[in-house]
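Dear support,

We are seeing what looks like truncated structure output for some complexes. This example has two components. We would appreciate it if you could run it in full and send us the complete token output so we can diff it against ours.
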Amino acid sequence: MAPYSSVVRSLITSNPLEVVVGGLRLEHPVLNASGVLGFEPEHVEILARAGFSGIVTKTFTKDRREGHPPPIIVELDNGGLINAVGLSNPGIGGICPVVKAAKSLGKPVVVSVEGSSSEELVELVARAEECGADAIELNLSCPNVRYGGIEIGSNPSLVYSFVRDVTSTTKLPVFAKLGLCDKAVEVASKAIEAGASGLTLINTIKAMVIDVYAAKPILSNRYGGLSGPPIKPIALRVVYEVYEELSVDIIGCGGISTWRDAAEFILAGAKALQVGTAFIKNKAVVNEILSGLKKWIELIGASRVLDLVGLAHRR
Amino acid sequence: MYMSAQKVSTVKLSSTYYKVDFRLLDKPRAKPKPLQFVNVWIPLVDEVPMSISDYEDCEDKLSIIVKVVGEGTRALVEGSGYYGVKGFYGNGINVEDYDSVLFVAGGVGIAPLPLLVKRCLEANCKVDVVWGVRSGDMLFNVKSIAPGVNEVYVATEDCSIGYCGLASELASSLIQKYPGRWSAIVAVGPKPMLRALCENLGDRDVYVSLEAIVKCGLGACGSCTLKPYPKLLCRDGPVFKCGEIIDHLKPP
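Here is the complete output from our reference environment:
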């Protein structure tokens, strides 16, 4: 028995794609980005089948939210998407079924939460922990809501207090999901100071689209969050900048569509990645990214993805 | 993709149904397939999923058939000017593999027939139709919107015209009467109709086109999940073989 189990162990540990980010162990770095499906057990199955190493849920709020009326999403010619779904979700009661579905499929699950008060947040996080979540992602940067959105996420002292409220009441790793803002490094450092295990960088970027014949904004909410290839260089810059200053655990997110994008984020300092828009456009994207990453790692003579994290900072 | 569109006309077809034509101001990437759908944005009002009824390639003219059920559909029928058309969504259906199709429609489920007939004729396949409605005044001449259609059988629940009863009953009895006449059955209509057809006719080459709340149309928002299946109407449908979706059709 001993030789067999040692073989198995060596196979497991020699998985070149395995990563540990903020204490969360993943068989490979590619998670789904929050907001793509993720509030029904059926959604979890779709995401698991697509090959994501873990499931990030849709952001849950305490009360059920209907979200914005349609149009809630517009495809742009430049490959981007602008969405203003408006955090529609079934409320706190929806957390357990989704977590259980992920666990039954053997996937670690990160529960994304957003609250308008620290009491709400604490309640949401407690529920996620009870249900068996593996980590929390604190959505501090949704561009599509009035409360708890990007206004909080760009205010360092508010970020500190929201993150502190959560980390002081849970044992789970907490990732703070931040958006694009001028004070990215300052906000990020406050989140870490408040006990976050890592950061998810970045959320969609507030944007809009106007129909030139109807002469009106298309989204019912007028503004939405831009995602996809157009934001990739911006997200990459934020990851690089924050890693440069803080060397913290980062989940990179923003327009990752190919293995090359993924590799860039890893070199910039991301230990794991989230893919949203590219998955909407291409069901096979996860496997395409993974096989590309494997070849890349081999070609440059590295033994595992973790050895490459932040390599672009080396002078 | 998002396409700006200009409304060209509204034609009243019967007491209940209107044909609304748009000219697409942006060139679609591909021709639509039968049973694909679009989300039509009505500025400042709403956005509604609509089955593609017909499409003229050279003029980029897109037709839908509308039954007024709310503010959005009313604005589609009565309004004018510029709209947004998002699509073409869903997988639609490939009719090339069949030489004879029976199209079973319940109510506004008649909408996708013209494009289905057009694509069928291009592939040397003929289309017969069973159309059921609640009352006779809802009916219109199907050949006026789909000139290439072969036989048309109608059913009314008020028994005023044609078969007295449901489209699913009429279709089932025709299939029993003419075994082997149709190589595929394609059904569009309310859930109970689709369920009855699936139960009566089994799984073999019976296709049903489902409806659900479609918000984003891209497989992102999750509003059109076909519980209990890990399937989305916009991404995996709207057309399924009965066996793929039978549990979804069961009453809750």
